[in-house]
Amino acid sequence: VDNDVIFCALEQGLPQRIPWVPGVPEATLVLVDRGRVELDLKLVRNCASHGVLHLPATARHIHTTLLMAREHYEYECRLRGRIDKLDESLRGVRTVERAKSILISDRNLNEEAAYDFMRQRAMEKRVPIVAIATLIVDTHELLD
Known about the structure:
Structural class: mainly alpha
Number of strands: 3
CATH architecture of the largest domain: 3-Layer(aba) Sandwich
């Protein structure tokens, strides 16, 4: 999808036709409610939209809905970015902990000395400590 905003008529079966539900939205989704039948809030929720526009709509309604939907979409994107960074950090912490346990068992180091060993190598090579920890873990798995 090469669009910033997609307007879709709110109809039964719409969630199955939206390519990114469930998943990461590729554009701001605004549902258009024609007001012909009672509003199905479960259907609205299942579409994972960023806004709903009820017809008949004035220019003011459209502008406000579009503004709020874009803000909601951009906020969601920022949150997904933060979640990705937190996931990456958590994986890094796990890798560092695993590498420390390998160093403790293989080199008879205590926990502090194992961490200092990795930190020193990381500073010497000018790489993040996670990179050193990953090498230790990967090398250990390769040799086992």
